[in-house]
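Chapter review: from sequence to fold.
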Amino acid sequence: MNKKDLLKKWDKLNGQSERIKIHHQCIPEFSIGFSENFNLCAHLKINNKQTNLRHERHEEKNISFIFDNNVKIIVVELLDVFFKDIFLDLIISLFNTIKDEKDDQKVVDNFTFCIFKWRSFFTKTNGNLSENDIKGLLGELFILKNIISRNKLEINDAIKSWRGPYGDPQDFQYDTNLIEVKSKLSSEESVKISSIQQLSPEGQNLILAVVNLNKSADGKDLSMMINDLREIVISKNGDISELYKSLRKAGVEINELQKYEYLRFNFLLEEFYNASSPEFPSLRTDNVPKEIKKVRYTLLLSNLKAYRIPEFY
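The token string follows.
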């Protein structure tokens, strides 16, 4: 099930009020169609009259959720076409959540949980990302893509390992591994370290990952990178809402990615350094006086060859 499949089904209805089942392999009675206002909508019909829908109606500015306990139906309606892409992802997520479930109460509970997990994505933000923000994000997403594709972590654990958007000292953390990601243009010889904590291992395995970029009209923009990740997550039956939650925390508005299309980069090379080594040249919590609370410094990479390591994925 993908967005193209969904849109083809909606096209068959030609804007009429009838509904069509989302997929023949879906056990629950889950269908898509158009509302009375000709908005995209989805319906979940429950046949067991003893099932409790638990809620009534939640109408927000851009999306509506109706829980009708009398006729045992849940209706999800898109109110603002600006959020169409997110709405399609929500429907796919709902489908994957309930498609194999036979217990009606579990269907309703899982469906409802999924709805409320996604509702925050249907609000607009006013943030704008700078070119440096985009470069940094592309580097982190590139590393995340490789972790998801090559690492043995369970898919949702791999997504949750991305901690940069949440203000953690390092950009990634899983098991006993910490990864700090720095993006730079290939012509640059150094990276900037913005705090004492960034290269402080704290007893764990700390890797400095440097992603080299080259600005290019035929490179990847933020939208392309996010779509690549989205496809991988869905193919591995991961929870795409976890990725969107982290992106939103990082200041990314999924429905406004086109405004960053002019910033395209080729990914040239990854370099990895063992920042856990006691000899690694860094300022960290165990070698900086407690009286010093904030530092920023530049790390010259050409002098770090002794600490280069193979890729860690």
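Two observations follow directly from the output. Residues 3-122 form one domain. The two ends are 29 Å apart (CA to CA).
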